[in-house]
C-alpha cells in the first residue's frame, strides 16, 4: 500500500492504539494534520504547546497508557521542552511528535528551525530525527516500545516536512508494520531487565523476616509497574508499615491500618521518623530523592536497605543498598512474597513487631497532621478547604495539583484510596502543571470526577487551557487556593530570609479570577467565608457539562508543616508551634 | 603547569560499543557533561561491522564513581556494550605529534630523543621540528615530558585506543554485561 509519510505517521499512531492527540499545528507539521481529519483519533487543540505536553502527561498518569502530543517546529517544539523534562523526571510514558523544517533546510537557520533533538537529549529517554519517510512506521513503533517499557519516559520524534508532504516525492513510501521481533532486533542496546535475581530475592526475604523495625518505602515505580496489589499483599503478609512518597500517593490506601502516609520534606512526622528509626528500609520503585532523604549521611542511619528498581542506575546512586534488585517492581514483589512464604513454611519466624508498632502509633497520636482553625473573620485555612473538597468527592476522584504549598497540603490532607487518583509534578516541580494535567486525566478517564487543586501563582501560568477544556467540553473542576502569594517561596522567606519578602506578592484580586474563568467559558465562584465552602463545592460537583473554577481566598500566613529544612537531617523535622512540647519550644528560642 | 598523566590511577578506560548512527557521539558527550563526569580523553571510529562504532573513553573517576558512569551510559539506547579495560589485561595505544621550537644547533638532541623512543620526524624547518610517536600512553607521557624542556610549540595527542588482550582470561566485565544491568 502506497502512502505518504503524513498518512503513515497517523496510521502508525492508530496501530499503536492511540485514542487522543493533544496538539497545536503550525507550518512544518501541517502535512501531518491533514490526515487527522480522516482518522478516528481524537485531536484536542490546545492554546499553548506546554498545555499539550502536560495534558499528555495527565492522560498517562490517569490511564497508564502513553500520552501523545504533537506540535510544530521551532517555538512549538521548544514550548514543549518543560513537559518533556517533567515527564522524564517522573518517568511518565509520553510520545511527542514535532514538526521540523525540510531535510534540505536543516542546519541553515531556516524559519522556525530549532535543533529539538539536540535540545531535548537530556530530558528525553530517547529521541529521533527521522530523515526518510520509509522509516516512520519503524520509528513510531520503537518510540512506543521505549516509552512504555523498562523505566518509562518521554520519547520525541522529530519529523521534517518534506518526508510527510504529499506534494514532495520524498514523502512517498510503501506501508509496512514491523513485528515485535523486528523492533527488538532494531534496538540492540535496549534490553530492560524485568525479572529480579533469584538469589537477591531470597536475601531480601531473609532480611525482611529478620527485621525488628521494617518500613516499606514505596515510590512512583509501584504505580508504573501496576504493582499496588502486590504491594498490599506483601505489606499485609508480614504486617510491615508503608510510607508512600509524593509520586506514590494512592499506591497504598491511606485508610489502611499499615499506611503511614507521605515521608519527606513536608511528610507527616510518623512517616519521616519511621524511616529515620527503621532497621530495614524496603525501597520499592523509589529513588532516595533529596526531598525524601534530607541530609543523606544522616538519613535512616540504622537501616539496612533493600532497593528494588527497574533502572540499575538508581541502585547505589544515593545510598548503597545491602540487597540491590534490578527488575520490574510487580514481578519482584511477587517473587519476594513467594520467597517469604517458603521461609515461613520452613519455620522461619519474624521478631515481634509490636514494640515497633507501639512506637509508630505513639508518634501518630502525638504528632497528627493538624492546623489551627481560623479565628472569626479571618481568611480561610487552605487545609479546611481541602478537607471539604476531599469529603465531598467520590473516593475514586482523580486529583491533580500544581507545585508549591497547595500541592503539599493536597498530598497531606487528601485521603487516597486508589492507585492512579493522584496526578502531580514531583521531580521537576513544574508550576502550572495542574490545569492541563487535570484536563488530560479527564480525557483519559471521562467516567471519573477530576479536581485540580491549584495555587494562584500556578493558575496564572497555564490557565489558558481552560479555554481548551470549555471548547472541547471537558468538565474538569479547578480549586484555586488564592493566598495572593507565591506561597512556598513566601514560607521560605519567612523562615530562612528573616521575613524579607522579595518579589512574592501577587495580589488577591488582580486578576479577577472569577471574571477570567467566566471569560474562558467556565462556571466560576468565589468563596471568602467558611460557611460558603460546602455549598459552593456542592454546586461545583453538580456541574458536569463544562469546567468549573472555585477561587478560595486563603490565609497567606499559613505554612506547610511538618517541615525538614533543605539540607537538614530528617531528625530535625519541625512540627507546627502548637504541637511543640514546652521543652522543644524553649529550645527553639535559644539563639543558635 | 604539568598536565595530569594519562596513566594516573584515577583514570579508567571504558571501551564502549555504540550504534553507528547520527548524533550518538553527541549523546555520549552530553551525558558526561550534564551529569558532571569528566572525560580525560576520547577516541572514536567505526568498527569492522559498519553498524557499530567503538569509543575508547578515559574517564576521571574523581568526578563520580565508575559504576554510576557506566550505568548512566548504559541507559543511552544507542549504547550496546560497555567493557572496562583493566590496564593489566588490555593493549593500549596512542599517537602523539608535536612541533618543537629548536635552534639548528640543538636539533640533533631532539632527533636523538625521537630516535631513542622509536618515533619519527615528520617535518623540518629552520627553527623547528615536527615529530610523531606511537605507543603505550605511558611511553607517550615520558616522551612528552622529555620534549618539554626544548620548547613545545604545538602538540596533539589522539587519546588512547584500547582492546582487551588476547591469550589471557577474558577481561572481567564491570557489572555491565548486556545480560544484567541493561536498562531502561
List the helices and strands and how they pair.
The complex is a heterodimer of chains A (592) and B (184).
Chain A: E1 2-4, H1 5-15, E2 20-24, H2 30-33, E3 42-45, H3 49-63, E4 67-71, H4 75-78, H5 81-89, E5 94-100, H6 116-119, E6 126-129, H7 136-148, E7 154-160, E8 172-174, H8 180-185, H9 198-210, E9 214-218, H10 220-224, H11 228-238, E10 242-244, E11 259-261, H12 269-277, E12 280-284, H13 290-293, E13 304-309, E14 323-326, H14 329-345, H15 354-366, H16 382-392, E15 398-401, H17 405-413, E16 422-423, H18 434-444, E17 450-455, H19 456-462, H20 465-471, E18 477-482, H21 487-496, H22 513-519, E19 523-527, H23 530-542, E20 548-553, H24 582-589
Helix pairs in contact in A: 1-7, 3-5, 3-18, 9-14, 11-14, 12-15, 16-17, 16-23
Chain B: E1 11-19, H1 24-34, E2 38-46, E3 52-60, H2 66-74, E4 79-85, E5 90-101, H3 107-116, E6 120-124, E7 128-135, H4 137-147, E8 152-157, E9 161-164
Antiparallel strand pairs in B: 1-3, 1-4, 2-3, 5-7, 5-8, 5-9, 6-7
Entry keywords:
heterodimer; A: 592 residues; alpha/beta; 6-stranded parallel sheet; 16% strand; B: 184 residues; alpha+beta; 5-stranded antiparallel sheet; 4 helices; disordered C terminus
Characterization of the model:
The complex is a heterodimer of chains A (592) and B (184). Chain A is built from 24 helices and 20 strands. Chain A has 592 residues and is α/β, with parallel strands linked by helices. In chain A, strand 15, helix 17 and strand 16 (422-423) form a beta-alpha-beta unit. Chain B is of the alpha+beta class. Helix content of chain B is 22%, strand content 38%. Chain B has helices at 24-34, 66-74, 107-116, 137-147, and strands at residues 11-19, 38-46, 52-60, 79-85, 90-101, 120-124, 128-135, 152-157, 161-164. In chain B, strands 5, 6, 7, 8 and 9 form a five-stranded antiparallel beta sheet that branches. Residues 173-184 of chain B have low confidence and may be disordered. The chains are: A alpha/beta (592), B alpha+beta (184). The A-B interface holds A 117-118, 121-122, 125-126, 129, 146, 149-151, 153, 187-193, 197, 310-313, 316-317, 326 and B 18-19, 22-23, 26-27, 30-31, 34, 65, 67-68, 71-72, 74-81, 178, 180-184.
